[in-house]
Give the backbone structure.
Amino acid sequence: MYRRLVRLTLHPKTLKYAAASAVSIIITQGLLILFYGILRRWSVTTSNIMATGIAAVPSYYMNRAWAWGKTGRSHFLKEVLPFWGLAFLGLGLSLLAVSYAHHLSVSMGLSHLSDVLFVNVASLMAFGVLWVGKFVIFNKVLFVES
């Protein structure tokens, strides 16, 4: 069991998925800081929706083409729809997390900077919970060899 786990962990597909996820995290967190922390144009929930939605597009293409080596047109029912379903699941979980984090920071009277950091950590943790599950679904369902 241990050897199988180590082999899967060091597998190029796993490493590429992790790298694509890291890029997605950087995009999401950067946009969340920009939209909510710096520009202050939108609420925490709107900022989170925008950041997550924008980051999901390159995430799909990086995972499909680079991590799983799929080429050609995407299959809507087998790839696109499930991917976006998982993206919306992640969005829902992160919305709960960032809303709760924002509520806590306001109730504790934290500064805007502390609130932004609190919200970003909550978003990161919410997506971290789904990371392993998404890998299994991508590997066994979405991007399987035809």
Remarks:
- Residues 76-107 form the longest helix (32 residues).
